[in-house]
Design goal:
5 helices; 41% helix; D-Maltodextrin-Binding Protein, domain 2; Phosphate ABC transporter substrate-binding protein; alpha/beta; 135 residues; two-stranded antiparallel ribbon; signal
């Protein structure tokens, strides 16, 4: 019985480490995005969705939400994402998304530019941006 209780507590602790992610866009955008669309944007495979040009904005590797985004949304570890972008940059086939160090920077840049897309913890979202997807 103690083993099962320990396992349940471990799982609950593990789940609480991950905040709900919100992919955010400018309030003027009416996009509703799926995981595939978000992944294509952040992996450099798409520059627009439904005719709307979007520029992805990432958090730096030092921010804990970055690793969560990479794993949950992109389906890869941060080291796999870094290797992917290194290959593309080296071969001249792509440029990784610009990075900022805080969720408040993401919020400010998205709120002030209708073509930037970023992500923050769901509990950080306010009326200055619109949620296009949650994970």
């Amino acid at each position: 019985m103690l083993k099962y209780l320990s396992l349940v507590l471990l799982l609950l602790t593990h789940l609480s480490v991950y905040a709900n992610l919100a992919v955010i866009v400018h309030p003027s955008q009416s996009l509703e995005l799926g995981q595939d669309e978000v992944s294509r944007l952040f992996m450099g495979r798409a520059g627009e969705i439904a005719g709307v040009p979007l520029v992805p904005l990432n958090l730096t590797d030092a921010h804990p939400l970055k690793g969560q985004f990479d794993e949950v949304v992109l389906g890869r570890s941060s080291s796999q994402i870094k290797a992917y972008w290194s290959r593309l940059v080296f071969t001249g086939k792509g440029t990784p998304p610009k990075e900022v160090s805080s969720e408040s920077e993401v919020m400010a840049l998205v709120a002030n530019n209708p073509n930037i897309i970023g992500y923050v913890a769901l509990d950080k979202v306010d009326d200055s941006v619109r949620v296009a997807a949650t994970f």
